[in-house]
Write a structure and sequence with these properties.
Elements (H helix, E strand, L loop, with lengths): L4 E4 L1 H11 L3 E5 L3 H13 L6 E6 L1 H8 L2 H12 L3 E5 L7 E4 L4 E7 L2 E7 L2 H17 L1 E2 L7 H11 L2 H12 L13 H11 L4 H11 L4 H13 L3 E6 L7 E6 L2 H5 L2 H12 L1
Parallel strand pairs: 2-3, 3-4
Antiparallel strand pairs: 1-7, 2-5, 4-8, 5-6, 6-7, 9-10
Helix pairs in contact: 1-2, 2-4, 6-7, 6-9, 7-8, 7-12, 8-9, 9-10
């Protein structure tokens, strides 16, 4: 990389870095948008990814990783040894991308982004040494969200292939999955999928707890909320021993008639 990356979007800069990099990459003090774009670019990257060491502000990481879509894809990258997350005690003034051969400073100017590149060997070596040391001293960021690959595989195995297809289609139709008014969260999506496929509450909540999405208690509370709002319904299913279990069903015709691409939009309108 021998020229500055001007008049680029952050995703273009990240693609260039990933394509050109060999060995470890340090991504230092990335913005919220840069973290989201990195996860998106790396997830869709066609080729062998370098190992990216992301040193980021803890509050920024927490905020970004509240989105299940971003966090579950980041967890996939961590599982593949393509990403590691640690937190900065003191952030530098600039956002940096450091590779074995270059240092790129990310500069924002209004709605424009530039990557100012240097490949001066002495400067690059000194920068690498600096951030290798800071990396060793940094605290690991605990990402509790499960990898999306594991979520999909276990949902297909433990509930049904149709449930997994519905889950993936709903996620694919969303820009965010936070459950904070801007999007459905992963528990709500799971319960809607379960209701659409008439799965048992016990089965979907056990799956959700086992895979690491949320506790059975969280699933139960969310089920009650959705049932009270009329989005889902339940019917008792007798079993040989113990209390009857609850089968989930769609509780509103608008949801029953919606296809996968529309289900999230209809559900969001009803929740809001």
């Amino acid at each position: 990389m021998d020229s500055n990356l001007l008049n680029h979007q952050i995703d273009d800069i990240l693609k260039t870095i990933l394509e050109d990099a060999t060995g470890d990459v340090y991504m230092v003090n990335p913005s919220r948008d840069a973290i989201e774009e990195f996860v998106s670019v790396a997830t869709e990257f066609d080729g062998e990814l370098p190992s990216v060491h992301m040193l980021a502000d803890e509050r920024t990481l927490k905020d970004v990783m509240d989105d299940f879509i971003v966090a579950s894809n980041a967890a996939d990258l961590i599982d593949a040894d393509a990403l590691a997350l640690r937190t900065l005690d003191e952030a530098p003034e600039n956002s940096l991308l450091v590779t074995e051969g270059s240092v790129v400073a990310i500069v924002h100017a209004g709605d424009r982004v530039g990557g100012l590149v240097t490949d001066d060997e002495e400067f690059v070596d000194a920068t690498i040494e600096t951030y290798e040391g800071r990396w060793e001293d940094a605290e690991a960021f605990n990402l509790r969200t499960p990898p999306i690959t594991r979520v999909r595989e276990t949902l297909s195995e433990e509930i049904s292939a149709d449930a997994e297809a519905d889950f993936s289609a709903i996620l694919g139709s969303l820009e965010t999955a936070r459950g904070d008014g801007d999007g459905l969260d992963e528990v709500t999506i799971s319960l809607l999928v379960a209701a659409r496929n008439e799965a048992l509450l016990y089965d979907i909540s056990k799956w959700g707890e086992d895979v690491g999405i949320a506790s059975k208690a969280t699933f139960s509370r969310t089920k009650t909320k959705l049932e009270d709002m009329g989005l889902i319904d339940t019917e008792k299913v007798p079993i040989d021993v113990g209390r009857p279990r609850l089968r989930l069903k769609i509780g509103d015709e608008r949801l029953a008639e919606a296809d996968n691409g529309q289900l999230a939009t209809v559900a969001q309108s009803m929740l809001n």
